[in-house]
Amino acid sequence: MLAVVTWRLGSGPFLDGVRALEGRALVAGAAIFLLTTVCFAWRWKTVAGRLGVRLSLTAAVTAYYRCLFLNLTLPGGVAGDLHRGVRHGRDARDLGHALRAVVWERTAGQVIQVLLAISILFVMPSPLRSSMPFAALALAVTAVVAFLVVSVRKGRGHSRWERARSTVAADVRRCLLDRRALTTVVLASTVAVLGHVLTFVIAARVVGVTAPITRLLPLAFISIMAMALPNIGGWGPREGVTAWAFSAAGLSAGLGAATAVAYGIMVLAGSLPGAFVLLLEWLPRRRRSRPEALLAALPRHRPHPGGTS
Q: What count of other Cβ atoms lies within 10 Å of the Cβ of residue 133?
């Protein structure tokens, strides 16, 4: 995708996105990233607590910074979540519930992001406005099918399918349908999504986009939704889709690609505390392993025949 965008637009938009960034924009992006990370951690803590695996907010924020840094630097965008779930499961000595907490927390966030995107694209002019009724219909059908799959019983409860269905239904009731938990998940997810939209708007202003907010908001949601596609740290689909969306909205495709690049750098810079978390976790293990390595490297004393040692 990056190769196609570069072939069609040249390297100018990428260089413009980098050159336009300044200290104030990076600081603003880091502050917004902190807010969104706290929201993500709050959501995770709530869901994990409903599944019986306790987690403090401080530990959740630290782990989420590490998770987001890994997601933004490794292919696929889920390696950090897997690492987060496994580490929490080992600490809590309950790997199954810890991994399920991560799955449900991320799933709930994605659902709320899609609902917000469809709502904004419904009411504001955008290149996808005419497709929103079909998207809403598809989402409603998916919700009905998911409800039927979870609620309809088959068999006597001894099959693998029935056990999985019962587990999913119980998790949904405990994590997502409880009033207090649902309120927390919706509020945290909404604030986090709006934080990323605000970061996108700042990136657009930095590269010189002067369009009104009413035109930028739908484009921001389209760009953020594109990052759910297979990628490496969001790069590729985000730039291609944003360039197309800007062009379809009557703006410059080059400005769209530059905005996406600036947004990507702002988010990556905001995630850098996660790299420090990884480093601080790695150093103690390195120090502990060094004496063991030195002992292993020392030559073993072998007694002489007939002597004592």
A: 11
